[in-house]
Amino acid sequence: xxxxEARGIKKIFGRxxxxxxxxxxxxxxxxxxxIGPNGSGKSTLMKCIAGAEMPTEGTIRxxxxxxxxxxxxxxxxxxxxxxxxxxxxxxxxxVYDNMLLALQAQNPLSSLIxxxxxxxxxxxxxxxxxxFRLAARAGDPAAALSHGQQQWLEIAMALAPEPRLLLLDxxxxxxxxxxxxVTAELLIxxxxxxxxxxxxxxxxxxxxxxxxxxxxxxxxxLESGTVAQVQNSRKVQEVYLTRV
Amino acid sequence: MAEASxxxxxxxxxxxxxxxxxxxxxxxxxxxxxxxxxEDYLTIFVTRVLILALxxxxxxxxxxxxxxxxxxxxxxxxxxxxSIALLARDLGITSIFIVLPASLxxxxxxxxxxxxxLLLGRCPPTTIxxxxxTLTGSYAADRLxxxxxxLGGGNGIPSIPAMTAGSYEFVEGPVYYYLAFATLLLVxxxxxxxxxxxxxxxxxxxxxxxxxxxFFGYRVQRLKAIVFSLAGAIAGLAGGLYTFHEGSVWxxxxxxxxxxxxxxxxxxxxxxxxIGAVVGVIAIEIVxxxxxxxxxxVWPIILxxxxxxxxxxRPAGLISLLVSERERVxxxxxxxxTLPRAAHEG
Lengths: 244, 346
Known about the structure:
Largest interface: A-B, 58 and 45 residues
Low-confidence stretches of chain A: none
Strand content of chain B: under 5%
Mean pLDDT of chain A: 90
Largest sheet of chain A: 6 strands, mixed
Number of helices of chain A: 10
CATH topology of the largest domain in chain A: Rossmann fold
Shape of chain A: globular
Radius of gyration of chain A: 18 Å
Strand order of the largest sheet of chain B: 1-2
CATH superfamily of the largest domain in chain A: P-loop containing nucleotide triphosphate hydrolases
Structural class of chain A: alpha/beta
Mean pLDDT of chain B: 89
Number of domains of chain A: 2
Order of helices and strands of chain B: HHHHHEEHHHHHHHH
Structural class of chain B: mainly alpha
Oligomer: heterodimer
Radius of gyration of chain B: 22 Å
């Protein structure tokens, strides 16, 4: 059974139809790339899945449960995690505290009030920061990190609640080629832990890490299949050759 | 590759001396000995200041930590005051062991009811919605009290019997001062514990990126409602202490005027540090007291200008003269001070 199954997702903002009946299916441990020209509805679809936007029509099932009307916090608790397109680490807090904030998110209230997990999570905070090459910056405010490092911190934070499905919206935007390469390296081990839906403009990056691709164009699914299938699709070539 | 990346610099960080604990420790002994050196009428004045500081603390908790602009802290203060005034007047209940817990519970229940209505709706409310909602609540409570004969109408309830412990009566003076002081100290320590806990980190996250942290699984509106109710309980407790200290309650104790005054105390002293709220009350009350004595005609104008100046030039309040932004935001974890170069290598 598919982990995520979005069917007939329609999203209308006033007069603008951002999505007109899109479907997306993601299997367990699948890395699914979402590509398409600017304005094709990729980010809107991600937001609908994570609960940041409510679809005008359509249903979203996650792990066998209909989550179409479930608020974001409950989706996160069910195992969905989103990294926004805009970097949204908490700039005034230390890098360490950003990580702790993400790791403790689903602890019960009483344990937060009595700080019961501050000690037990310490090693995990350092270990995760170390994995994402941020250990040396643990005590700095997140605002002091470079753009690429902030993106890594966000990915690390999005992975902290051990989601079953991670949604990454343009994780490598604004990164140097070297930082992109490192990001791909950081994401590959994630495959053992969860599924991934990733929006990216960098097609080489997508090719390196994804199993399945879905191409959106003007709010519709243009093509969906393995990387090879999509690459050879004439429809996709037309869109990418004529409009991008 | 690793050496080339800025992520691998090992940065020894100088340890900054925290200022907030110094301010806290400096104020503590001063207030502990004040009744011993002050004349009685001044002790009574400072007792009032301490009780108002308790009320300001409740506002700092909601605005400074949970980001809820409450223009209605006086509702909980006044509702608790009226309720225990009725307990004393109609049922003769004045025992400290009943009236103070009762005022706390009334503050809690009223704020829980208002908080559920304002904060737990289907869509997250905007700051303006909550500010106007609480403001309206405060105005309505004031009008209700003024119009209700049973509550004494515009005059309120005068001549409430003194609070008692057995046969002992708490009248204004040094003993009442120490009661207020002990209550403030206890509540302050509890708030301090809370805002520095992992719960406090969640609140800091909520303040900085409310929309973001829901996606980690934080139930943001519930967190807000909890802090709002807790602050309501503190405001209620302050209302109970104030009522028996003054020996009466009146509609202004519920109204927009007092609600706004509390906001000003905290903005003046400094938001989101706890001690800033206390400093704000002390500063405004002492300045008002002195100005009213020396410039009887124009003192409200001078005070108003002074408030404007501080809020314009020091938006983070008086305490920001001493406390850095970094310290105000706070640290919650314990990152190692220096880290080995590229710890993960190998």
